[in-house]
Amino acid sequence: PSSAPGRSKGAILSTRQILEFHTFKQVEYIHCKMALVVDEFTVPEDKVNSAKDVFKKFDKKGQGRISTMDLGPAFKALNLNAKADQLKEWADLVDEEATGFINQDGFLTLFGKKLKYDQDERDLRDAFRILDKKKTGEIDVEDLRWLLKSLGDDLTEEDIDDMIRETDTDGSGFVDFDEFYKLMNSE
């Protein structure tokens, strides 16, 4: 509905787009001729080539692998910042045997994941700004309630109440971006 809270004409994100945000649990990659597809996110060929070049720089012995310890510096070389715990979690996904090394395919998968993660965060910030009508850095839980209802996930009122209670831990009636982000990325 056009008068629904949190939606304005020309809104950056539709509720359908917000629905599509999810956490990364499964590593799936497909190499295409022109791009890399990771978790349904397409990485353009030029970025893939840049990532391959960086991988080669860190693969000093030419063994087709780099240390998981080099993941952070390699991402920095690609102008990407990631928290150590995030890097560890992602490295564990592609280094299933805990060898301490990842191959180029694993590196490209993580590179794609990072790009998608950053894009999802930007999209969530845009959605949050739309819902933050008063520009206070917080959204009213009633607007959040409307959003959750409109996602069409077969959520009951009780489910929504539970989600809001878990998100608005201080009971203020408002949710900041960090709380919103956690909610939108929860399972």
UniProtKB/TrEMBL annotation:
Top-level taxon: Eukaryota
Key words, A-Z: Calcium, Repeat
SUPFAM superfamilies documented for this protein: EF-hand
Gene Ontology CC terms, in alphabetical order: myosin II complex
Coiled-coil zones: none
GO molecular function: calcium ion binding
Domain EF-hand per the UniProt entry, residue ranges: 46-81, 119-154, 155-187
InterPro entries: CALM/Myosin/TropC-like (IPR050230), EF-hand-dom_pair (IPR011992), EF_Hand_1_Ca_BS (IPR018247), EF_hand_dom (IPR002048)
Gene3D superfamilies, per database record: EF-hand
PANTHER family in alphabetical order: CALMODULIN LIKE 3, MYOSIN LIGHT CHAIN 1, 3
Protein name per UniProt: EF-hand domain-containing protein
Taxonomic source organism: Macrostomum lignano
